[in-house]
């Protein structure tokens, strides 16, 4: 805490000598002390940027994890759908393998087509 007060006091003293057209060098501070203050300010600025980047990368990591979980769920749902569709196709194959089932399908399909033709002609 004491170093903060010293820093603020030194900063006030550092910028106290600013005049129009340039900086008037203060007799109580050497060039080395002024460079130290500039370095401290630069380090503070860099530390703020590092903290910002750290938070940003943490947010990106959370977002990536969220998307990975969502993609896993979608993949699992697609696998389940593929299994259901496969079972349905197997049942269709069994229906079409017997000759009487093919005739029944042809009869039903022709009735549907005739119904659709009549419906569109009467509209």
Description:
The chain is mainly alpha-helical and 123 residues long. The protein has a domain at 34-98. 85% of the residues lie in helices and 3% in strands. A two-stranded antiparallel ribbon has the order 1-2. A hairpin with a 2-residue loop joins strand 1 and strand 2 (22-23). The longest helix is centred in the middle third of the chain and has 67 residues, at 31-97. The chain is rod-shaped and about 105 Å long. The N and C termini lie far apart (89 Å). 0% of the residues are buried.
Give a brief description.
Strands 1-2 form a two-stranded antiparallel sheet. 85% of the residues lie in helices and 3% in strands. The chain has helices at 2-15, 31-97, 99-122; strands at residues 18-19, 22-23.
Order of helices and strands: HEEHH
Supply Rg: 40 Å
Strand content: under 5%
The level of helicity is over 70%
Low-confidence spans: 17-27
Q: Main β-sheet: number of strands, strand sense, barrel status?
A: 2 strands, antiparallel
Helix count from the secondary structure assignment: 3
What are the main properties of this structure?
123 residues; mainly alpha; rod-shaped
Write the layout of secondary structure elements.
Elements: H1 2-15, E1 18-19, E2 22-23, H2 31-97, H3 99-122
């Amino acid at each position: 805490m004491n170093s903060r007060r010293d820093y603020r006091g030194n900063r006030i003293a550092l910028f106290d000598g600013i005049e129009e057209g340039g900086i008037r060098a203060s007799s109580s501070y050497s060039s080395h002390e002024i460079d130290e203050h500039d370095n401290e300010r630069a380090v503070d600025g860099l530390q703020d940027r590092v903290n910002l980047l750290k938070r940003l990368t943490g947010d990106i990591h959370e977002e990536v994890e969220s998307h990975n979980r969502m993609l896993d769920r979608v993949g699992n749902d697609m696998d389940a759908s593929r299994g259901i569709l496969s079972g349905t196709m197997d049942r269709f194959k069994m229906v079409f393998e017997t000759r009487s089932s093919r005739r029944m399908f042809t009869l039903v399909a022709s009735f549907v087509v005739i119904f659709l033709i009549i419906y569109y002609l009467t509209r």
